[in-house]
# Entry
Amino acid sequence: MLKPNKLANKNFLSSLDISTEEAFHILELAKNFKNKKSSINLNDKVLGLIFDKSSTRTRVSFQVAMSRLGGTTVDLNPVTSQIGRGEPIRDTARVLSRYCDVLAIRTFKQTDLEEYAKWSSKPVINALTDLEHPCQALADFLTIREEFLDFKNLVLTFIGDGNNVANSLILCGALLGVEVRIACPKGYEPNSVLIKKAYEIYKNKNLLKITNDPHSAVLGANVLYTDVWSSMGEENQKDEKEKVFNGFSINSDLVSKADKDAIILHCLPAYRSKEITDEIFESKNSRIFNQAENRLHAQQALLSCLLA
Ligand code: CP
Ligand code: NVA
# Structure
């Protein structure tokens, strides 16, 4: 068992910020929080939330997670705070980290998140950037483990845009030793630097595959996962991407090629009839809402580790 203080006061900017041992520890703790086998009192600790992009799940699950841990949150609206008027990140970070015990930040550039972390005296959590969504990946693998009990011989196939969610799935999959296949249109592959990092982590290099063919990628897969085709900030690419991603929708044809017990995941929000059909979204093998619930448990575990 991991010593509880190993992650204390660390940043979580990327799935690369935790080790394999730490990833398993967070998942185990999350399971225990979910089953009410763990309870920790953070004694009025305060989480500051700064969200430059919209959010339903991440914002609320962080708020509820802190409340369950006996802490509280402050949600800073970038438009009505001085952030929107251009106060430098280095100043905001130095001030907020004197009030708050931890910051969760959703923004565009990973380098801006890193700038917050550089100047903050308290841990900073990535609540989604254009590059990564590591909190999402923790909840996803919690959901997968809940279903299959362990990760041995499991295949997770992600179909869609090789964006933030796919990048974090690759890294977290590498840490946990899960086979990850990404099927995306040409030119929409995951970040090449992160792919390289994932290959460095995987003990078995055959466990990561990037392809442009969704049909071969789903063969025998145990988990089928997708995300929106146009992410926040890419609204002007919507029409073009809908054309390019034609054929990359999780539908009954693709599901029929996966393992017969394959589960369906989606980080949400979803656009039915685009990246996933309504039939598959609502099908009995969909675990999409368990996955959304697990954001709460995974983040409770993460917060309790960082603030221990
Ligand atoms: N999956 C996810 O991060 O959802 P929100 O954008 O609603 O936070
Ligand atoms: N890729 C999506 C994820 C939303 C949770 C986006 O960045 O908008």
